[in-house]
Design a protein that fits this description.
Blueprint (H helix, E strand, L loop, with lengths): L7 E5 L7 H11 L3 E6 L2 H13 L4 E4 L5 H15 L4 E4 L6 H5 L7 H23 L6 E7 L12 H20 L4 E8 L13 H11 L8 H12 L10 E4 L9
Parallel strand pairs: 1-2, 1-4, 2-3, 4-5, 5-6, 6-7
Helix pairs in contact: 1-8, 3-5, 5-6
Length: 255
């Protein structure tokens, strides 16, 4: 049985084949969903477009999530093409490289604003627009990380941004619940992605993760994709406002 047959969803944050968003995309496509994608600039379009076209997507749109004008245009185009929408995948995060290298106490005001705007506020801006097209209810998922709850070496301002993201998920779940729209976060374990490559010492983090995680391995794109399928489908029809870990149990461990 295809769990997303006849449903339509928009994916924000696909970067390449190693993206967590691609793992989610593959599961959604396999279960019958029609998918649209956004890209932030021409360089990423060259990576996103071939992937999107490989699964038959014709809705591939430019979108800088810091631009209200571009967000408006995206959802205008979605409404023109589809009329309604069933789900959103938010896989967007960014922080200035210097703010990931320096101690958190040295985070610049501009760097803080940038990380929070792109990584957290973008979910609010997207959800507000998507809700208008979710006339029959829907599901929104955002990707988080353990750094939202615990201090993770070298994660710094991104941890604060992810904490804001998870708090936003709860607030949005409360606001949009009466419309039948569910909002949840998936806190994925460390996966080798383009975004992760910007975190200093990431390889060391992976090896430590494998040593301590109860399943003695790291999570994969496929793992996150399968869990996303649960949240985007009717299987999770009574679940909202949650942060769900897909990290091989790492979050339950302590020294």
């Amino acid at each position: 049985m295809k769990l997303l047959e006849g449903k339509r969803g928009l994916v924000f944050g696909l970067a390449n084949q190693k993206s967590i968003a691609w793992g989610i995309t593959q599961q959604c496509h396999a279960h019958g969903a029609s998918l649209g994608f956004t890209y932030v600039n021409e360089a990423l379009e060259k990576r996103v477009r071939p992937l999107a076209e490989s699964i038959g997507s014709e809705l591939i749109l430019p979108c800088d999530v810091q631009s209200d004008e571009q967000l408006d245009k995206v959802f205008e185009e979605v409404e023109r093409a589809w009329g309604t929408i069933d789900f959103i995948v938010h896989s967007v995060a960014f922080a200035d490289a210097e703010d990931l290298k320096n101690p958190f106490v040295e985070t610049s005001r501009a760097g803080f604003q940038l990380a929070l705007d792109v990584s957290a506020y973008s979910l609010v801006a997207i959800a507000r627009r998507a809700a208008k097209l979710m006339t029959g209810g829907g599901s929104i998922i955002a990707l988080s990380y353990l750094g939202a709850e615990k201090v993770v070496t070298n994660y710094r301002v991104m941890g604060v941004a992810k904490a804001a993201l998870e708090a936003s998920v709860r607030e949005l779940a409360a606001d949009l619940g009466p419309q039948g729209i569910r909002v949840n976060a998936i806190s994925a374990g460390p996966i080798k992605t383009l975004a992760a490559s910007g975190i200093p010492g990431f390889r060391d983090l992976l090896s430590r993760f494998e040593e301590r995680a109860p399943l003695r391995r790291t999570a994969t794109q496929e793992d996150v994709g399968k869990t996303s399928l649960y949240f985007l489908s009717d299987l999770s029809s009574a679940v909202t406002g949650e942060t769900h870990y897909v990290d091989c149990g790492f979050n339950i461990t302590a020294l």
